[in-house]
Each structure stands twice: as C-alpha cells, then as structure tokens.
Amino acid sequence: MPNIAKLAAGSCYLLQGNEAIARGALEAGVQYSAAYPGTPSTEILTNLAAVAKETGIHAEWSTNEKVAAEAALAATYAGLRAISSMKNAGLNVAMDTLQHINLATLGDQGGAMLVVVADDPQSHASGDEEDTRWVAQMANAPLLEPSSFQEAYEMTKYLFDLSEEFNIFCWLRDYTRLAHSRGRVQVGEYKKATKKPKYDTTKVFTPYIAPPKHAILVEKMAKIRERSEESPFNTYNGPEKPELLIICSGSGEPCSLDAIEELGLGSRVGMLKLGTLWPFPSRLVVSHIEKAKQVLIVEEVDPYVETHAKEAVAEARLADAPEILGKASGHMSYIGENNPDKVIAALCKVFGLEYAARDADYQKRINEVIKPMVASRGLIWCPGCPHRATFLSIGNAIKRDGRSAVVTSDIGCYTMDVFPDGPQVANTLHCMGGGVGEACGFGQLGDLGFDQPVIGICGDSTFFHGSIPALINAAYNKSNMTLILLDNAITAMTGFQPHAGSGRTATQEATPTVDAEALCRTLGCRVEVVDPFDTKATTAKLQELLKDDKGIKVLIVRRKCELLRMRQERKHPYKMWVDTEKCIGDKCGFCYRILRCPGIGYDKTTGKAKIQEALCVGCGLCADLCPSKAIVKEELA
Predict the structure, then answer these.
(1) Which helix (H) or strand (E) holds 298?
(2) Last residue of some domain: 303, 332, 351?
C-alpha cells in the first residue's frame, strides 16, 4: 500500500481504485473521513487512516455506517470537506441519514460531503448483488460512476467541488473490479488542508423544515442535470451513424472496448460511455440513440441505464426509435459482473456472428484432462480459527439438548458456517445484527406454543455495529434466548480493523475499550465466558444455558483471531505431527472430514492424516479432539 500523501504531482502510479479515490479526496482537501470496514470499500479509509497523522486529517472506523455518515455530516456542518465510505450492504444501515441530508442541505458553513458506496457484482464478498444506483436517485444525490482508475481519482475531486457549490452531498459509485484492481493514475498536487472547523450558531439553520427546501433541491438538481448533459465524464467513440450503439457505464466500457476490438466491429459499432448516472443525461443519450439503427445497453446487475434510456426515448417521442437491447431483451444478464465474453456473446447475437474464445478440441481437452486435476477449494475457516471449534461445540450442544434449537446468525468470518464446506449449524443469515434481532423474535414465541431453544450469533465487531439495539429490545421485551458472542478481538473478515472493543483507533492510537461483557450485564443478562478451544467446557456451558429458560443468556466465546495472534507473536505454540501407527485414516477421518482444517491433509500413500506444515499454525486443537489420540502436539519454547 503506497503512502498516498507522498505521491509526486504530475507522476503516474499503479493504484488500486480505492487508493485513487483516497488520493483524490486528499487533493480535494478532505479533512474528515469516517467508515465501517466492508469489502470492497475498506481500503479507502485504510489509506486515509495511514496518513492521517502526517496530513492532519481525522480518520475513524465508526461503529456502523449510519454513525459514519452522521459524523461526516457534522464535520461538513462545521465547514470541512468530509468523506464517508461503505459497501453496498452498509448503505442499508446509513439510509435513514442519507435520505434526509439533501432535503435539509449541508448548512451554510461552506463544507462538502462525498459518500462512496462500493457495490459487489458477482457477490465476491457479499450476501447479494445489491445495486445501489437507484438509492442515489431516491436521495437526490448527484451520482457518478468511474470506468477507469483515473476517472475514480478525478471524479472524487470533482464531486467535492460540486457538493460545496450546491450545498448537497454527492455520491460516487465504486465497485469490486475497480476497487481492488490496479491501473495507471496520474496524480496532481496535494496541499495540506488547514481550514479550521467552526459552526456559526448565530445563523438560523432548520434542517427539518423540508417542504421549502425540497423545492430548492429540485431547482438545484435541474441545474446539475444540465451539467450532466455536457460532462466530460460522458464520452463517445465510433462512427457518426453506427449500426449499433453501445451505451455503457462503469466496467461496461473496458469490456465493450475489448469485445468490439476482438470482433473487428470498430467501423460498425459506436460506444457512448456514461459517467454521470444521476441526474441522467437524457438529451445526450437521445441525441446518440437517434443516429443508430440499434442500441445495446451494457451495465452490471440492474437495468438502471437501460430503464432511464428507454424513458428518455419515450419522452423524446422519436418517430423511428431504434430497438433498445439489454437485460430485458435477454442480450445481457441481470446477474454477475461484466466481462468481454458476455459482451461478445451479445454482439454475436445482434450481428449473427459465430465466435469461440477457444478451439473446440482445446476446450474439450481442458474439460477432460485439466478440470479433474483441479482440487475443489471451498470457503472454509483459516487454520487455527477459533470459530471452527465454536461451531463444533454449538452443533454438539444442540444434538445433546435434543430439542432442535433454532440458530440465527449474521455476517462475519463465522458466515463460513453456512457454505457447503462449513458445518451448516445456522438456520438463518441475513445481515449484521440480524442474528440477535431474529433470535429476539423467536425467543418471544413461547406464549404462542413455541418450545425450541433459540441461539443468536454475532461477532464482536458486529455486536457494536448492529446487535446492541436488538439485545436491548430482547431485554426490554423479555425474550428468552441465548446469544453467542464470538469475540476474536478484531474485525478479521475485512482485514483486521480495530473496533470499539479492541482498544485501538483507526490510526492505532490507544483508546478506552468498550467492555461487551459489562455492557451485557447492565442489561440484566446472564453472562458466561469460555475459551472455544476448551470444547468440552464450551459445549457443557451452552447446554446449561439452553436449559435455562429465564430471559437472556450471553455466552462470550473469547479467543484471539489466529492470524492476529500470529502477527503479534510471530511464533507457533506447538509443533504438530501425526503418529501413523495410531491414526486409523478413513475409518475415522474426523480431522480432515469434520474438523476440515486446511492444516491437515490426507496422505494417499499411507491412507492416514498428514499435517500440512506450510499451513499448520500449531494451535493444537486437532490434537485435543483426535478420537484416536494420533495427532501429537509438542510445546515450543
């Protein structure tokens, strides 16, 4: 990760999309940044936090996205330029705040606010492919979507200026392939922002009197729409009157360029790339559509551009409007990321062409020879992960209890449980905090005849993010449930960011630790603490809590994330090896079939378990659990 504050003006660098956005924010004079870690948006705040001390900016990991947006808004009210970044799912948490801001304005202190929302087409690190572009329209926030790393940097700077001029927050749509890929970015000059924050209390600012301000906002958006029509972020390449016009945005541009070049259609196909998605540049789009014989829309997930393009044509009442192809026509998919092959397939369908990326015989050989050689690599927990032991204990406790306990979970490393290679203990999984909220609901059904024990699961970072209100609700409304709080001391899934319970800020300064155990006790909860690697004690304690049908029980399962421990201690606790005389191989298979630790493999020559020394972290869990006592752990000095 480069030091984004020390990149030389006028020079070119190979930057991640998120690094380009962070650098653009610095050059734009940002002085306040707040976010909650969420892939693929995390690195924006990570890069800003890394240079916060030397640049004099504020950078924080907020407890959730709503708080991050509100904190950034406060800095804006004080006249500063602020940025709040989040992933698609995090936007749902911040919606209450963001839907109101532009109806109320940013005050009159001269500040500016940029919200960056990173979508995740293909759901690489998300539960779904939520398309957030519609929300910018609902929030009356100008929306830009970059197609390149250079645009990500330039749009960031532009949107800060636009925000300050019109006194409303602006929206930049980030997405996985931009956020985590790298490309050439030429940076400008960075000067440290030194504006002193001040809120003038003598000025009358009434953010909640919306009706008159709504009329003003409509006027502002009309003016911004005119700029969208003329924006240099919208570009056209191709013949003056193309047989087919591709209208694309975001990753649709590079994919379409590759497809046109691969098929040699440069003289027949034109491409209109849109960078300004809201307000939608309707006149610009219509002016190009009326010159084409057919139109193909290339975008990811929802037909956002497609819908607005069709609306623009309908409003223009074109006499001979060309057919608009895209998702509705079946030429492009509603699902997943763009790639050149998808665009090539659509172009072949339009022009009646035949195309094969690979020779048929070559592809057949891949299917017959290569694919059987590739091992299946499902999503599983890291070697030494405490969640592996925890979920083993949860499963055992439920079996021994015998009453078919209902398990509600949410988002974190423990989500690996529900994937095909996980133990699949959880019954429901939706969003952060959802595990506790749903457990609260199940736990209130006793009076209606519900007689199954209820277990809610959340991680430590998730506890602070979205679970506390649900737990308070459970206490207030007398729910009967058991909460399992997985405390691994860090926000591990997104890259080891600190949280309110870790004692460190985003800039690694010491800060008071919020004690989750004490907090739960103040709510009247019964609280127990166990080490997940003591599986017998964890299982027994959970069995005990499930039998307790009086109110809320909290089982804090506390063990540091193994990757974090290794980073801090730089050593293995134990040396592990398999006693092949004791190992009974497939007659048992507990370590590699049930425990499924990547540090344990199967030796085909001996038919026994084998420690994978390159992966094993020496945690010793497998030795403690091996039914045959065939795995040995030797304590290291």
Answers:
(1) strand 294-298
(2) 351
